[in-house]
Amino acid sequence: MSITGLLGVLATLGAIAIAFGIKCIPWRTPLRILIASYWFSFGVGVVQWLAIHLHIKPLTDYFAHLMYRQYINESSVWGGGRPQFLFAEPSYIGMHLFGILLPLMWLMRGRDRIYAKRLRNLIVVYAIGSVLMQAGTRIVLDSVVALLVAIIVHNSWCDKKQRVRGIAQLLGAVMLGLLGVLADSRLSSIAENGAEGDGSFFARIYQSLDPICGLLAHPWTVLTGYGSGNIINAVWAGAKHAERLLNGLGMNGSAAVGFATGMNADTVWTMCAYTSVVAEYGLIGLVLLVIASIVSMTRVFDTAAAEHGVWGKTVICWLVLIVYLYIQCENYAFAALPLFIFAASKLRK
C-alpha cells in the first residue's frame, strides 16, 4: 500500500504533465468538471445534514452504507451526526478546499477572472457551509490558516496603503480564529483541558508519538526508516516509550499502548504525512522529498522577469500552506503536492 501510494503521486504528476504540458489540453473543460464535481459533493453534504437533523433514517442509513468509514448516523465509532460530503472523512475537507481549489484560484488570476471568481465562491461557500453544519473541527483551523495565507498572497506589502489594509485583515482573521475556537466545543475543550480535551486530537498525538519513539528506540532507523509498509513495527517498538513520555507529561500513556496493541500492518495509520515518511523511509527519504519540491519551486526565481515577482511570494505561500495541510494528512497520493510541483516548475514559462 505504501509503494502504491508513492506510485500514485507519481502517476498523478505524470497525468497532469501529459495533459497540460505535452498535449496542452485547454484547461477550461477539466476546470468546469472539477468545479461541478465539488459543488455536487457539497450538495450531497447538505442532503446528509438535512437527513441527520430531520431524522430521515432511510437516507442516513443509505449514506452510512455508501461510505467506507461513515460519520453520518449515531452508531458511528468515529463520532456520528456529521455530514462528510463525499470525502473519506470530514477532516479532509480542508485538504481539498485549500490544497486543490485555492491554488487553482491563484493560477487563474490574470488568466480568467470568471473562473477565478467561480473558484473563490465555491471555496467560500464550502468552507462556511462546512463550519455552520459542524462537519468537523479541523475545517475551522484550516480555514483560518488558509485565510491568513490568502491575505498575505493578495496584498502588495510594498505599497503602504495595501500594507495597512493587509495588517487590518490579518488582525481580523486572528479575531475570527479566536471566535471559532470559542464557538467550537471541541476546540474550546482543548483550550481549557489541554491535549486530552478532545479524543480525536489526543489520538493524533499518540498515533504519531508511537512511531517516532520507535525510531528513537533503534537510532539507525532515524536515517533509514523501518522500510516501506513497516510503520507498525515502529509503532510496536515505540509504544512503551511513548507511554512513559505521556505519563511523565501528566497524560494518559496507556492510550499509546492500547493503540499499538489494537493495530496491525494493514490497519495502522499516523494521520501525519511527515511521521509516515520518516517512519518508513527515514530522514533520508524526507530530505529527498523536500529537496525535490524546493528545486521545483526555486525554478520560479530563475528569471528576472518583473511579472514573476508576485509569483515568487505566491509560490512560497503555497508551499507553506501545503506543509501545514499535510501535518494532518498522510495520503501520499493526494493531488496537492503533484499540482504544486507541476505548476511551480511551469510558472517561469
Can you put this structure into words, describing what you see?
With 349 residues, the protein is mainly α. 70% of the residues lie in helices and 0% in strands. The protein has helices at 2-22, 28-53, 57-66, 93-108, 113-132, 138-153, 160-183, 185-193, 199-217, 221-224, 231-248, 254-262, 273-298, 309-325, 336-346. Helix 4 (93-108) packs antiparallel against helix 14 (309-325), helix 6 (138-153) packs antiparallel against helix 14 (309-325) and helix 13 (273-298) runs parallel beside helix 15.
Name the average pLDDT: 88
Task: Determine the strand fraction and express it as a percent band.
Answer: under 5%
- The CA-CA distance between the termini, in Å, is 36 Å
**Biggest β-sheet description:** none
Q: How many helices does DSSP assign?
A: 15
Shape summary: globular
SSE pattern: HHHHHHHHHHHHHHH
| Class by alpha and beta content | mainly alpha
Question: Which residues sit in consecutive blocks of at least 5 with pLDDT less than 50?
Answer: 303-308
Helix content: over 70%
**Nearest-angstrom radius of gyration?**
21 Å
- How many DSSP-defined strands? 0
